[in-house]
Amino acid sequence: MPVQFAAKRLGKELNKIQNGLPPGIELVSADNLEEWLLDIRVLDNNPLYLNETYRLKFRFGQSYPIEPPEVVFVKQADRPIPIHPHIYSNGIICLDLLGQQGWSPVQSVESVSMSLQSMLTGNTKNERPPGDEEFVRANKQRPKDIEFYYHDNTV
Amino acid sequence: MSGQSSLALKEEGNRHFQKGDYVAAEALYTKAILADPINPLLYTNRAMARLKMSRWDSVIEDCEECLRLSSSSSTSTSGGSSKNFKALYYLSQAHLPLKNYDQAVAYALEAHKICTETHDKSLAAVTSQVLKCKKERWEHREKLRKREEQELEGEVVEMLRREMDGLLKTSSSEDGDDEEERKETEKMYEEKIERIRAVFERARDKENQRRPNPPDWAIDDISFQVMVDPVMTKTGKSYERASIEEHLRRSETDPLTRTPLTIKDLLPNIDLKHACEEFLNENGWAVDW
């Protein structure tokens, strides 16, 4: 796949995004075609996420969208890491559609953001994934290199 | 001729090409051709270096020589025919800056056809070339059209002026006729001219308005580009051939349903292909929407 493939597709995604995103999703920055930041909010009254905004970081490789982007929550003074049984406290997300197996090239920044938004909306468990502390302490790798075990696909 | 074989010369040329020293690469490919003037593949190598040097005319010569040699070598080997697409691809790239738009489009489409048949990995690059040629051809035609319309506007205004002058002259020759009538005629024609200019202006304004996004049916959901060669999966959904093949090489699944899907399952969507072609002919801007 030539290098320009990812750049062209991202340019067009950006064009689309600038015409509007779904409620609760906002573009923070897309200064280059490697890393974008977005903010997401949960729109209903789920007490776990009430009045909070979360920051997402997308990183794209040159084979995007054939290969998935790397997507993590990033912590800022006013942007905590949302609590969820599939989100580690360092921001790494365990979601099959972001994995090598579950990814599809018809997904986009917008659709991934919406999936994460609805993953939060539907959650009632005030907990981190099992082994979170250990995972966060041991993990120095990028999310892409980790083989997740999708222990619970109902969440 | 020195003892160095054409193969060794070509490989040395490739090394220079990789480093970005196209001048040295071109010289070595030339030596390789002198050592073995009937090998068609050497000509595409040199054409590739000459492309980088923007020597469009000599790119065309090399590619045409390559095509001539590979067609005369009777039943060309599989290696030969897969190189042929390169000659066609480079021909397209050389004709485009020379403003030979129709040729650039035609060669890109021929290269696309061969890549499709051989499932070559360059299909995505060739598909982009088709779009690029179509876009530039459209821009060129638009420029001509706009110029013609501007000239037409000038001519129409000029004709009205002349008609008015004629009328004024005849009325003045009848001498003594009232100034009132002359003024009336002048006013009427000025208004007509004003109206003609407004009509042209309105047409231009409409064109300069921000264009909407191209329609979803023309867009491939993987590359987000207007489709050149849409193919359909078992679900009835169509994708650009280059995009879906690239995906299937990585994962043999339908992008929407994740059920098993292979390249053999893809069917060309001819009607959609024609619709996309027609759309692009009228809307070349949609290549870079």
UniProtKB/TrEMBL annotation, chain A:
KW Transcription (keyword) present: no
A Pfam family it matches: UQ_con
Domain of life: Eukaryota
Domain UBC core: 5-155
Sorted UniProt keywords: Ubl conjugation pathway
Protein name: Ubiquitin conjugating enzyme
Automatic annotation (TrEMBL), chain B:
Pfam families assigned: U-box (PF04564)
InterPro entries cross-referenced by the UniProt entry: CHIP_RING-Ubox (IPR045202), TPR-like_helical_dom_sf (IPR011990), TPR_rpt (IPR019734), Ubox_domain (IPR003613), Znf_RING/FYVE/PHD (IPR013083)
TPR repeat ranges, renumbered to this chain: 6-39
Protein name (Swiss-Prot/TrEMBL): E3 ubiquitin-protein ligase CHIP
Catalytic reaction annotation: S-ubiquitinyl-[E2 ubiquitin-conjugating enzyme]-L-cysteine + [acceptor protein]-L-lysine = [E2 ubiquitin-conjugating enzyme]-L-cysteine + N(6)-ubiquitinyl-[acceptor protein]-L-lysine
Signal peptide (from-to): none
UniProt-listed SUPFAM superfamilies: RING/U-box, TPR-like
Alphabetized Gene3D superfamilies for the sequence: Tetratricopeptide repeat domain (1.25.40.10), Zinc/RING finger domain, C3HC4 (zinc finger) (3.30.40.10)
Keyword Protein biosynthesis: no
Region feature (Disordered): 167-188
